Amino acid sequence: MAQALKCGPCLFEEVTVDPKHFCVDCLEYLCTACGRENRRHKTSREHKLLGEAELPQDVTLFNEMKKLSHCPIHHDVELDQYCKIHNVLICLHCLKNQLRSCEDCLDLSALLEQRFATENLGELIIKLKKM
After folding, report:
1. Can the keyword Metal-binding be found in this entry's annotation (predicted)?
2. Mind listing the pLDDT tens digit for each residue in 56-84?
3. Domain enclosing residue 81, as ranges
4. How many domains does the chain have?
């Protein structure tokens, strides 16, 4: 039998409320009030909230995706740099602390903007599928 989904912050306060949202960044189910609070706070304002029709029954996939996009050393920091010399994705902390001498590092957002500006999206998808 599948476990009933409940709002995480409300459960913490021992209140049982059905969720209406799922925060992809926090990996937490949220009721309407907690979803509103999530959007209200500056630190979570940009979080991606899924609606009631999109509530995942299992958060494993979201958890794995989060692990892939975050630094294995600095777990709370997203990978945002690419070192051409070492052919690795790194975070800004790693760049400053471990790869200071590397002069050929690129900001991922700038790299993606450049890539999208020069390639057709369809061609890019085909290339990504071949990788």
Report:
1. yes
2. 999 988 888 888 888 888 888 888 888 88
3. 70-130
4. 2
